[in-house]
């Protein structure tokens, strides 16, 4: 039996979110394909995994530099597609989606740089902050919900304070690049509310701890090997956004 007008309308409404998510994933994959090149502006050798100096691992690029470069492009494109697509279905984002996407786009480059050379360059962190503030102000104005904007600022302040105190602890390996990135991520996380913010503050340490345990078990690092925290901060914020 042919579908009636109401059925067609219902199908159209249900297909739009899926189409939008696919478009976001496609946009993310295009951005991700440029991540290695963009990261190369800040480090001489961007990699998907930490370098020999960071991890003490053997160089696994036996297929030659061209194949390794293509592999990095494909890997980052896939990661970015998942990140953008996930944000497209995150329930608490709403009108602030452009702000979250802006932070995610810059965050991908930050993750690549941090994995390569244990750095979170200030220009990139500042660009992420600019994207977050601009997008959140626009979203608050559009929605007429200035309270959420104040919650975002409070989230940034709480994130900065908490991570700064951790960085000042004796023996802490937390760098102030991590502190500044945590403050920036506190902006979109604060928009989601206190549960999302707290999840985004705690989850990175769980992810980082699991990664360290895995690398230790694989004998790729020693207990005193410095490891990047930026990717865990970004991954934790993304997962907190999906579950908020």
Structure, explained:
It is built from 10 helices and no strands. Helix content is 75%, strand content 0%. The chain is mostly helical. It has helices at residues 5-33, 35-39, 52-55, 65-89, 97-117, 122-143, 146-168, 176-192, 194-217, 230-243.
> Fraction of residues in helices?
over 70%
Radius of gyration: 19 Å
Q: Provide the succession of SSEs.
A: HHHHHHHHHH
The percent range for strand residues is under 5%
How are the secondary structure elements laid out?
Blueprint: H1 5-33, H2 35-39, H3 52-55, H4 65-89, H5 97-117, H6 122-143, H7 146-168, H8 176-192, H9 194-217, H10 230-243
Helix pairs in contact: 1-4, 4-5, 5-6, 5-10, 6-7, 6-8, 7-8, 8-9, 8-10, 9-10
Features:
mainly alpha; disordered N terminus; about 240 residues
How would you concisely characterize the structure shown here?
It is built from ten helices and no strands. By secondary structure, it is mostly helical.
């Amino acid at each position: 039996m042919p579908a009636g007008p109401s059925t067609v309308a219902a199908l159209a409404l249900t297909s739009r979110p899926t189409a939008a998510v696919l478009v976001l994933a496609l946009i993310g994959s295009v951005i991700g394909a440029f991540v290695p090149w963009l990261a190369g502006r800040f480090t001489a050798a961007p990699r998907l995994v930490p370098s020999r100096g960071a991890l003490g691992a053997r160089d696994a690029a036996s297929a030659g530099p061209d194949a390794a470069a293509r592999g990095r492009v494909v890997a980052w494109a896939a990661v970015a597609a998942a990140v953008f697509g996930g944000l497209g279905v995150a329930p608490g984002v709403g009108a602030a989606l452009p702000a979250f996407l802006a932070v995610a786009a810059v965050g991908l480059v930050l993750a690549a740089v941090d994995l390569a050379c244990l750095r979170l360059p200030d220009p990139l962190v500042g660009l992420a902050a600019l994207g977050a503030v601009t997008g959140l102000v626009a979203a608050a104005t559009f929605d007429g919900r200035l309270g959420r904007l104040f919650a975002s600022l409070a989230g940034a302040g709480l994130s900065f304070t908490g991570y700064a105190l951790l960085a000042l602890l004796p023996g802490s390996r937390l760098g102030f690049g991590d502190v500044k990135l945590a403050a920036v991520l506190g902006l979109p996380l604060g928009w989601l509310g206190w549960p999302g913010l707290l999840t985004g503050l705690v989850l990175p340490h769980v992810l980082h701890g699991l990664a360290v345990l895995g690398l230790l078990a694989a004998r790729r690092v020693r207990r005193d090997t410095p490891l990047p925290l930026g990717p865990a901060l970004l991954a934790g914020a993304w997962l907190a956004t999906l579950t908020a």
